[in-house]
Amino acid sequence: MSRVGKKPIAVPAGVKVEVVEDQIVVEGPKGSLRQKKLPGVDVVIQDDVVQVERKSDAKPHRQMHGLMRTLIANMVHGVTEGYRKQLRIVGVGYRAELDGNDLVLNLGYSHSIRVNPPEGISFAVEGRNDVIIVTGIDKVVVGQMAANIRAMREPEPYKGKGIRYQGEVVRRKAGKAGKVM
After folding, report:
1. What confidence tens digit (pLDDT) does each residue in 75-89 have?
2. Structure pTM?
3. Can you name the residues that pair with 102 across neighbouring β-strands?
4. Who's near 60: CB < 8 A, 6+ residues apart?
């Protein structure tokens, strides 16, 4: 039995979880999320507790058991508290600023890069225009948006310049040792 899959999910007050046809719908104070129900599992909702049960001990059903429980728990957390990722810009002249809802990045290229947020995502810039905060209710979309921004100028190993996650450690290389004759 999956240790993750058999844990019940407590539904806080103000959050509504329901199964509509083959989708799980979670509505809360921050918004609404939908997730297609995975094959081989059943979702049982009773007394503000969600329990995921699998149909058999077949390998595909065991694989989906813990995954479905984690997806539902992430949706409940997202509609109550939300998710956020912080990115830090390192480099002389590298900066970020907001233009309405859009994020404008100056990363040493000949042009600035404008990032339009997808629906449900918002940006904030803090510090001396060197900290970007990506917030939203869907964990997958927040993480993917942060990864897309980081990919625009990944941290390089010689000077450490680029965009990195808050707390990420970049291993530095020594560079050229000098020409020896």
Report:
1. 999 999 999 999 999
2. 0.87
3. 99
4. 39, 40
User: Is 69 within 8 Å of 119 (Cβ atoms)?
Assistant: no
* Buried b / exposed e along 133-160 (16+ C-beta atoms within 10 A): ebbbbbbebbeebbeebbeebebeeeee
Question: CB count, 10 Å around CB of 27?
Answer: 16
pLDDT in tens, 100-130: 999 999 999 999 999 999 999 999 999 889 9
**Residues 18, 88 within the same domain:** no
Calpha distance 36→21 (Å, rounded): 9
Q: Which domain holds residue 43?
A: 9-80
Number of domains in the chain: 2
Q: Which of 80, 101, 118 is the last residue of a domain?
A: 80
Cα 87 to Cα 167: distance, rounded to the nearest angstrom: 9
CA angle (165 as vertex; 76, 118 as ends), nearest 5: 55
Cα atoms in the 13 Å half-sphere on the side-chain side of 171: 0
